[in-house]
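Narrative of accomplishments. A recurring question from our advisory board has been how the design workflow behaves on a single, concrete structure rather than in aggregate. To address it, we present the structure tokens for one chain from the evaluation set, followed by the sequence designed for it. No filtering or post-editing was applied between the two.
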């Protein structure tokens, strides 16, 4: 079964209670939304020039669009884009976006993370200014491709962000074991090799990585800045 079908099956019913139930364990999402570096039109750059347009922001694996809606409400003025493997999730997302009157701000498209192109997926002539993954990489079997594709679709000198589960190293062992067992029931896997992969991307000069560990290493927020052109 392909990933799109697997995700549709998993979320067919749970998408209706998704936002309420995930509120309690997808921690750090609002922190990331608050911290993302976003530039409005007219933002002054270090060389004295000014940006012509507001940042275009993409969420990869946007699910119900919960994050995009919070972002649009807390930090208005940015064109937002979301892609997801699951058309069922996107149907719920589109309804939520409509309900809060954000249909002209948030563009949603069905797409696998590894197939993203700014032009092909969204009809854009330029790469994105900011990209983020919120608890999606831990569900994406092709996560390394997803990371490389995100980097390829990002403007030089800008950042992609990740918020996701970490190793819970500073929390009780029983809790960590239980969490990993429970998450595996939802196709979610903590992959230590993922952070190692991003650290290697940093060492390879593909960008500059910064990581902040949250809540006893329950989760982490990473930012990865693509080198300037
Ligand atoms: C745990 S949910 C997180 C949703 C949202 N980002 C949030 O923070 O509430 C993960 C999402 O990733 C999507 N997903 C899984 N594999 C994917 C892939 N290969 N490409 C794009 N999206 C994918 C799932 O359909 C699901 O909506």
């Amino acid at each position: 079964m392909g990933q799109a079908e697997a995700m549709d099956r998993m979320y067919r019913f749970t998408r209706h209670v998704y936002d309420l139930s995930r509120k309690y364990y997808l921690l750090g999402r609002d922190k990331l939304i608050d911290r993302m570096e976003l530039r409005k039109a007219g933002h002054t750059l270090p060389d004295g020039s000014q940006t012509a347009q507001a940042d275009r922001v993409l969420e990869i694996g946007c699910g119900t669009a919960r994050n995009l809606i919070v972002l649009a409400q807390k930090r208005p003025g940015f064109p937002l884009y979301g892609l997801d493997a699951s058309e069922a999730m996107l149907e719920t997302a589109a309804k939520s976006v409509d309900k809060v009157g954000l249909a002209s701000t948030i563009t949603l498209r069905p797409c696998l993370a590894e197939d993203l192109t700014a032009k092909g997926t969204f009809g854009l002539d330029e790469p994105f200014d900011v990209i983020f993954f919120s608890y999606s990489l831990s569900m994406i079997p092709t996560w390394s491709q997803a990371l490389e594709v995100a980097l390829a679709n990002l403007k030089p000198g800008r950042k992609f962000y990740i918020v996701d589960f970490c190793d819970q190293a500073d929390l009780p062992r029983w809790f960590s074991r239980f969490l990993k067992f429970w998450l595996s029931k939802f196709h979610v896997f903590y992959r230590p090799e993922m952070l190692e992969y991003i650290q290697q991307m940093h060492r390879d000069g593909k960008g500059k990585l910064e990581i902040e560990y949250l809540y006893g290493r329950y989760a982490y927020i990473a930012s990865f800045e693509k080198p300037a052109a």
